From TrEMBL, chain A:
It comes from Salipiger aestuarii. It is found in: Cell membrane. Keywords: Cell membrane, Membrane, Sugar transport, Transmembrane, Transmembrane helix, Transport. It comes from the Bacteria. It is a multi-pass membrane protein. The chain crosses the membrane at residues 12-37, 66-84, 96-112, 118-141, 150-172, 202-221, 248-268, 274-296, 303-323, 329-348. This is Simple sugar transport system permease protein.
Automatic annotation (TrEMBL), chain B:
InterPro entries: ABC_transp_permease (IPR001851). It comes from Salipiger aestuarii. It is a multi-pass membrane protein. It is found in: Cell membrane. This is Simple sugar transport system permease protein. The chain crosses the membrane at residues 6-23, 35-53, 59-79, 91-109, 140-156, 187-206, 269-287. Pfam families: BPD_transp_2. One of its GO terms (cellular component) is plasma membrane. Keywords: Cell membrane, Membrane, Sugar transport, Transmembrane, Transmembrane helix, Transport. GO terms for molecular function: transmembrane transporter activity.
UniProtKB/TrEMBL annotation, chain C:
This is Nucleoside ABC transporter ATP-binding protein. The keyword ATP-binding applies. It is found in: Cell membrane. Its main location: membrane. Residues 6-237, 253-498 form the ABC transporter domain. Keywords: ATP-binding, Cell membrane, Membrane, Nucleotide-binding, Repeat, Sugar transport, Translocase, Transport.
Amino acid sequence: MIRLEKRTQPSGYWTALSPILAVGLTMIVGGFMFWALGKPPVEAIRTIFWDPLFHPQFADYSRPQLLVKAGPLILIAIGLSIGFRAGIWNIGAEGQYIMGAVSGAAVGLAFYPSQSVLLFPLMVFAGALGGWAWAMIPAVLKTRFGTNEILVSLMLVYVAENILASASAGWLRNPEGMGFPGSRNFKQWSAVYNAELLTGTGMHWGVAAAFIAVIAAYVMMARHIQGFNVRLTGEAPLAARFSGVSPAWIVFLCLGVSGGLAGLAGLFEVTGPAGQVSIDFGSGYGFTAIIVAFLGRLNPFGILAAGLLMALTYIGGELAQLMLGLPGASIQLFQGMLLFFLLATDVFTNYRVRMLRREAA
Amino acid sequence: MDPVLLVASIMVSATPILLAALGEMVVEKSGVLNLGVEGMMITGAVMGFAIAVTSGSPLMGFAGAAVSGAVLSLAFGFLTQYLLSNQVATGLGLTLVGLGLSALIGSHYEGQRAPALGKLDMPLLSDIPMLGRMLLSHDIMVYVSLALVAAVWAFLKYTRAGLILRAVGEDHASAHALGYKVVRVRMAAIAFGGACAGMGGAYVSLVRVPQWTEGMTAGAGWIALAIVVFASWRAFGVLIGAYLFGGVTVIQLNLQAAGTTVPVELLSMSPYLITIIVLVIISARGVQGAPASLGRSFHASS
Amino acid sequence: MPDTLLSLRGLTKTYPGVVANDDVSFDIGKSEIHALLGENGAGKSTLVKMIFGLVKPDRGEMRLDGDLYSPGKPSEARKSGVAMVFQHFSLFNALDVAENVALGMESPPAMRDLARQIRAVSETYGLPLDPSRVVGTLSAGERQRVEIIRCLLQGPRLLIMDEPTSVLTPQEVGILFQTLNKLKSEGTSILYISHKLEEIRTLCDEATILRLGKNVGTCTPRDVTARQMAEMMVGSSFAAPEPKAGAKGEVLLRCDALSMPAPGAFGTPLREISVEVRGGEVLGIGGVAGNGQDELLMALSGERLAPKGTIWFKGRDVGRDGPSKRREAGLLSGPEERLGHAAAPNMSLTENAVLTGARRKRLVKNGFIDWTAAQAFADHVIARYDVRTPGADVTARSLSGGNLQKFVVGREIEQDPDVFVVNQPTWGVDAAAAAAIRQALLDLAARGAAIICISQDLDELMEISDRFGALNEGRLSPTRAVADLDIEKIGLMMGGAHDMEVVHADG
């Protein structure tokens, strides 16, 4: 018989090992899944995890894509991880991401075709503000009425998607677009185009922001009293109160930061890789970022690594779709499984597994 | 618009959420918060559709959907009850897995049509003017869902097993001290919730739409979660909540079809906005009836 | 002996490091209310657990009605006719009375019959209780009735009651006593556990007194005075407190008719608490658990904000200030619950040092935590208070209760408070550590700080306090100099009889 014993101290060894174990398990089970789909399992795994980086033919194209995909994932996941640490579950980052993009783009387009150098910074600010404001809705409702932030933030994703639809088909539609939905293309507007900063790397302002966010989050969580208070609230709410931390402030802080970062991610995406506000702009980054946050153990540098890994599965998945005809949805399932296995292997971090011959009397 | 058709379509539109919310209510009554309703629903939708198309029997489809929802929920149960993982994170994971799984399975079935689930033709009753067509000439699942409401209500209120389930959700430590098997009770509740969510999903793909499109449950699982709160964890409250929500959906769809001056997007977001508003009203009044152990992991240390 | 129901012979139970019961023997007669008297930690609960089948004795035997009796688990005890009403009820708040009763029974009848039986029993024994009421809406006394009726429905021969009056109002105590006397007249024996002397004198036929796990004597309570029983209970340790010399300073903390509503359904409201403490003085606050101790601490620490003008610190109204502001001003506190309230279980001792020490110890500069300084502070507390731990980097959860208690009390004292409010400073702490903590509190007072020590350990309060008051249902009795007190007066203060007149409940 197997028994779990709570560790007095979370195991540092397992904290690091369990994500690796989870990735391994996902590869094995995913391999079986590909095999069941009639695809060569080893080749599929290699196509997803190896070829995007090292394939002689595709690597040149896909390597830069790594940062392009990882940037928004990391930026959003960093914000989410701060909330998750405090036990505040913002799962509506997708909505904040969309609202950041829409509001930033709207502010920019209001000045079209200005070439002012101030315009892009203004849009960045508006994007962050849009995401922040969208996240403030669950924050206010939670602190004022005690409404569950999980459900509200999620419902707001659907609301945001409808706002996005109406923006791309209506009030932000390109007047010169011959009636097609979608805003003006930012790629053709040099003053606000969030272009690659270093050619061939995929590095754009959003990726730079993600790196800054990683470092800032690390410093905040490790050294700053606000980060300490966030962790304290998550660990022991009563002790946090005793220490003098206001629970409402932590709610505003966590939702505000995660909303703002998600909004930033949306703005950098819409002015860069996406290029315009369009109906299919929401690509699920806000949800995948939840996996990234957990896979990275809610640790900023862990999230950096997890974001890159998750970006790899996106690009590798596309490649596998192209090369092996692997269905796109299998990658989505693959990512979901990864989170599941991670949560399962997490048991070793907090519990010691004991095998017992018989139940001790 | 024809009131007969209106009521009839509200019943159809409410049934998926009713089933899912009812199942989730039982799960939460046992003290477990499973946020994976959406994932179990969409999996039920695709499995139910696939099985119904393959077997030609919509009822087989519903049975298969119930089984697949239950199997998926037991994965959640294993993680949260035996490996003691965080219920919020695991529920989210379940939703993500369900969305991926359903998209994968469903790609073969896009564009196909499901075999129709026959309307129940009750001799005489269905011929009653107005009422007959409004309430008494639906498919069997509508009545199954209504019967399930009564059954869950009676189970929780009158049976010893229902009492034990509530006791476990209320205070797992006391229940354990009195000798009840907390984890086993919860696993059973989780499986029931999964089966209900699966059937609810199948109702979307087999009756309401009826065909398979990716992501077709469109947040219904999340709304089911909100309805449990709205219902204050009571079976008939779930019924009222689901039918109210069904009403909002039908009215907003009808307004869209009628081409009013209200923007389409505003109409399509209205169910979600209304859900938020309802949640706020409920929480401002003070959430009542939440099981005291809801969402807390149970680890029998002694 | 034909009229003995339960006889205990030589019961011994040892836990690592402690002998909880040492060769305890006594008899409980049929139709007898037998008191088991002793201080916290005297071994009462271990003894009772053995009788109820929760703990197996190491040595000794029990006979029930002449037959050997050794229950392996509570259900066996119940089958033999032994029932128990716990001090902390295992009740489900959201369920109704009948459902709660049913959950505690092996094979309950149908709900409607059960409701009828509950009504019948509650009428017979004068315990008014509506089977359809939801338990969460009941008062503590009514909740206790649920447990009692649960027991009575199984027709017990012996009913064990663990500190039953600690949660009751005086009126409810009266009702309970009538019930118990009726049960007795019908032939049921009752083992009544308490440390309230007057109560035992009123109710019980016989009394067995435990001290440090030993049976130190049996007496007939009606024939002895409360004082005699008290001396048997506490032994020589209850020396007349020495009046403490030394001039007292200015009033540092004053509560002015402090009233606050109960925090949630099961809390206690604070009712017009007026008290003041001076520099260099230790004010001891006693009382039975659940009479507002936690609530008073939370009001003084600032975790719950008090109404304007009810809490004055050094002449300034701090009622509306939060914990940080009060701490900064010099008003510090130490809650009872170590894990989760005074300390974050999964965080390191260094981090737990920051929890309250951030400002006064200047561990935070411009918003950034100085981890070196924090660790130094934690190390200092560890060394100064002899906290046994491999280092400051282990989690609070991994420390033993006593060591963590030394750490959290030391953490506050080392911040040089002007006023220190502490709840149960030595609860669950071994004797040596407890003595160290008490000494630290006295030293702090000697340096001119005012101390409010809330405790359920009367010895402790007598040892360190200058003045004493008792909390009863959220009210604080007028305080008196410890030098003027004796055990009888203290008991009366704790029972809420502020005017110090001896009140006897009707037997």
